[in-house]
Amino acid sequence: MNMKRIRGRHHRAGSGPSRSSNAQTPLNRNHVFDSNGPDLRVRGTAQQLFEKYLQLGRDATGTGDRILAEAYFQHAEHYFRILNAMNQAAEKSQQERNERQQQRQRAYEDRREPRGEEEHEKPEGDYGSERSSDEDQDRRTAEAEAD
To answer: Rounded to 5 degrees, what angle do the CA atoms 135, 136, 140 make?
Structure first.
């Protein structure tokens, strides 16, 4: 039997992503939908489709076709619900970002605060760490000249 045919007929179960999974990808405002309306095909973002179906529903109402108008309004409601879901997801992610930013800010401020009196108190006469190597060299030179 020809091996290419076997591979082409998806005989290996479990390999690759499953097409029947119900995993939903998060949508953004720019996601483009292909919509099969009651009598036509419309393509655009959720906002564009919502507005288009509303206008089609109003036009159908104006011509007296109540059934077609209702179908358009139902499609408009569907995209309205998608818009609401996207807005809620965006608000939630914005809130989570704000909370993470506040936590980072608090952690930064905690690190910047003095740790106590130990940091401020230094033993008397121990200034070696504050002097630069040039100052040490100048001091040694002056001591040598004085002798």
So the answer is: 115
- pTM higher than the cut 0.70: no
- φ, ψ at 132 (rounded to 5°): -85, 170
3-state helix, strand, coil in the chain (%, to 5): 60, 5, 35
pLDDT, tens digit only, all 147 positions of the chain: 555 555 555 545 544 444 444 455 557 788 888 888 888 888 999 999 999 999 999 999 999 999 999 999 999 999 999 999 999 999 999 999 999 999 999 999 888 876 655 555 555 555 555 555 677 777 777 777 776
Encoded amino acid at 105, one letter = Q
- What are the start-end ranges of the E strands in the chain? 33-36, 41-44
Residue given tokens 């807005």 in the structure block? 87
Gap between the Cα atoms of 69 and 55, Å rounded: 10
Q: What's the angle, vertex CA 116, arms to CA 114 and CA 121, rounded to 5?
A: 100
Report the alpha-carbon distance of residue 86 to residue 64 in Å, rounded. Answer: 34
| 21, two tokens | 């999974």
